[in-house]
Write a structure and sequence with these properties.
The chain is an alpha/beta fold. The chain contains twelve helices and 16 strands. It folds into two domains: 188 residues, FAD/NAD(P)-binding domain, CATH 3.50.50; 99 residues, 2-Layer Sandwich (D-Amino Acid Oxidase, Chain A, domain 2), CATH 3.30.9. The structure holds flavin-adenine dinucleotide. Flavin-adenine dinucleotide binds next to helix 1, strand 2, strand 7 and helix 8.
Amino acid sequence: MKKNIGIIGSGIAGLHLAYALRNEFDITIIERHTSEEIRKGRIMSTQVHFGSTRSREERFNMPKWEEQSLIESIHIMIGNQKLFAGMLQEPASSVDQRLYYAHSMKDLDEKGVSFRREKVDNESAKALLEKFDLIIDCSGKNGPLFPFPLETELSPFPAPQRKCIVGYFAGIKANEPPGVSVTVLPGLGEMFEIPSMTEQGPVTILFIMAIPKSDLDVFKGMKNGEEFTCKMSDAVQRFFPHVYKRMDMEKFKLCDENGYLQTAITPVIRKPYLMVHDKLVVGCGDSVFLNDPITGQGCNLSSFCAEQLCETLIEWKHSKWDGEMGESYWKRTKQYVKEVTEWTNAMIGPLPEHVVQLLMQGAQDQDKANEIAQWFADPTTAFEAFFSRMNV
Ligand SMILES: Cc1cc2nc3c(=O)[nH]c(=O)nc-3n(C[C@H](O)[C@H](O)[C@H](O)COP(=O)(O)OP(=O)(O)OC[C@H]3O[C@@H](n4cnc5c(N)ncnc54)[C@H](O)[C@@H]3O)c2cc1C
């Protein structure tokens, strides 16, 4: 008989795991929302799936998306000075998570994965342990549902370091070559511009990360999408005039009434396993590895860790699932989690001088610019660039 696994949450982590494991184990996804509620609901995030994540999606036979959403480059600006557009080695893609999650849930349902609609709380989570050989907590940033131990060294912030302000908009002319644009305003925050695909067609995401209480932290008390859109247009005109130039104010509007979001995240990293009443529980994705979105690594880290957990479970398929297996999963992921997290945390503060120098070199040298773009696709290279010189 196949072992049975309960996955709480059908986000990036839960979906990757369900696709990856469905042929080896009996999978049940326990999710608080139906696919229709997700499809019609509020946007949840921004997202860029880099080459390695797209390869994993292919490996696990996850749904394919239209080519039109491909992202080829990363544009970097500091203040109003354009430094460069670095080319990615492999294209990336960005599909609205409402569409991605809802479509994948339906597809998995048709492929025989069981779904249970339930908002799990700490009590019901414990009860689930009795019904499954293993529970995987993929409840995302609202989790975790189990007390996974804190990794103190990787969790230095007691409070959010940015206010996240996101809108999915029509009416913005794309940058060339097609790519993600990052504008850093020292002392104020950042803006990410991301071409994406939604159910309504292509959009441009405007994602402002405002340092709390700075002059960019102006999105307070927004009551509806209209107010949000007006405020975004004012903020872009004032702080990001190079983006404003590409906005057609006749056409500038949210892709739908739920296409905006304001949130703030306190980054927290936890050891992704624990024993509850002699039973192993593991965590995957934001529930255990929650970083600030400033480096755009959340989906990619969730996807990476889902693959490592999948490899671990298959390797231990015929053995007892206990703390030793949990440790084996953590050993596979720890170094990567550490590198992504330390790079991300370094990006939150003022950039180190040697990194500013590297960015300036990127403005003169296309190979260097391409290397910097690749930091986002392969964050271990960013970690190396940020920290190897400091250790000399
Ligand atoms: C503003 C913002 C911008 C971001 N930008 C990027 C980016 O550009 N690139 C990138 O890679 N990452 C980005 N991220 C991070 C990225 O969205 C997450 O890392 C990723 O979605 C994590 O996937 P997950 O599966 O762990 O969690 P989620 O995607 O949050 O999924 C969790 C699932 O669990 C369900 N759930 C939660 N609690 C319960 C419960 N109690 N019972 C049942 N079900 C439950 C939820 O409904 C949801 O479906 C951003 C995040 C934010 C907030």
